[in-house]
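User: Some background: our group keeps a shared notebook of sequences we're curious about, and every so often someone picks one and asks for a predicted structure to add to the entry. Today it's my turn. The entry only has the sequence so far, pasted here. Could you supply the structure so I can complete it?
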Amino acid sequence: MASAIFQMIARILPNLKLKLKTAGMNYSPEEFIKRTFLSAFYMTTGLVVSLALILAKFNVLKGVMIVFIPIIFLLLFSYMLKLPDVTISKKERGITKEIVFAGRHLIIELESGVPLYNAFINISKNYEAVGHYFKEIINKVDFGTSMEDAISEAIEYMPSDDFRRLLWQVLNSIRTGSDVSKSLGSVLEQIAREQTIEVNRYGKKLNPLAMFYMIIAVILPSLGVTMLVVLSSFIQFELNLTIFLILAGLLAFVQFMFLSIIKFSRPAIEF
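Assistant: Of course. Here's the predicted structure to add to the notebook entry:
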């Protein structure tokens, strides 16, 4: 019964198999869904038990928990199903940081007369994110796969569009017998230009974010606390340490949210 449910969910998510392979997660879709289901179930059970113990101390109606149990489980299950997407995004950001430098390194190697196979070996030793995929290509070639087939397989499960374009250019050059270094130069120039545009776009996005941050996280809290102190003296409202701690916690949460937005919107590019 449970196996049939997992298979049904896998059919609803037809891209899951490709995402798992791209993320480097060696599970079948059904196995991944089963593991995700069990993890969400255990986390929900632990969370519900903890909340029940807390609510018991305050004599809060525990019947409310029954309503929220399936909601908590579905939220956790849906969130954990996104794990391959998160892993792919992380891999893509790592590749984006290195792709231009690794590509230029590869061109220098090839223009120096180093064979493509040896150039791939050198790249795999000097770059962490990009080098992982070059190392996989080399390992497949060592086990008897042709260079063309090894590159084609790498392209199929590549998390980065820029890296996929670079490998496509290498593959096309091998098939046509053209100079790999010259064809790579034009692709890398285009990738570098796109990264520069992305950085400029990010810089323009920072201006309104910085202004919004100043208003929400600096000006409003300062004025708000001042007004609260003044009003408390008129309406005989006692300000205690708990209220100030709650305000400080809210302010810290707002600052954390702004820093998270800035961090995750920043392009994964190094110059």
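Suggested note for the entry: The chain has a mean pLDDT of 82. The chain has three domains: 2-81, 89-192, 197-265.
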